[in-house]
Design goal:
This protein has 5 helices and no strands. It is mainly α.
Length: 163
């Protein structure tokens, strides 16, 4: 297996775990995660770092899902397409416009959540008094920018090299 592909799969798997644990910890049934060894990933309403800066991993965690969806659509190889030079085409995150569109859709989702949170709809999403709208928006914007740059480096090569 190509090292770039292995690293891409490993990083995206870790981001999926982080996103899944964080999301599960918001629900009442997932509160046990706060006291487990995964507690540093869980939502901690009394920790400024947890409520303010953990949002940095929000967009990359969804990008990890997108990465695996693209891999599934590619099936780990170049898809058969009846276009000129189709053998050289594969769906990946190289085009800047695609990275911008995908991360903007994800970040827009987070922005809507932030608006509802600060509009007093706490039943919609957990809110901590330690949160600050400006910091949240800056962190989410920075998360999107880092995701746009990092997505370009995710490898979509085959899992196995042809023999």
């Amino acid at each position: 297996m190509d090292h770039a592909v292995a690293i891409s799969i490993g990083v995206c798997t870790l981001l999926l775990i982080v996103g899944a644990v964080r999301t599960a910890s918001y629900a009442e049934a997932g509160r046990w995660l706060q006291d487990s060894w995964l507690g540093f990933l869980a939502y901690q309403p009394d920790s400024a770092a947890s409520v303010r800066y953990f949002k940095f991993l929000a967009t990359p965690s969804v990008v990890a899902v997108q990465y695996f969806l693209f891999r599934l659509l590619n099936r780990g190889h170049r898809p058969p397409v009846d276009l000129p030079h189709a053998s050289a085409r594969t769906m990946d995150f190289r085009p800047l416009w695609l990275r911008v569109v995908l991360t903007t859709l994800v970040t827009a989702n987070w922005l809507v959540i932030e608006v509802f949170k600060f509009a007093g709809r706490e039943e919609f999403y957990p809110y901590s008094p330690l949160e600050d709208a400006t910091i949240n928006l800056v962190v989410l914007g920075f998360s999107q920018l880092v995701s746009i740059v990092a997505m370009k480096h995710l490898a979509f090569g085959p899992l196995r090299q042809p023999s």
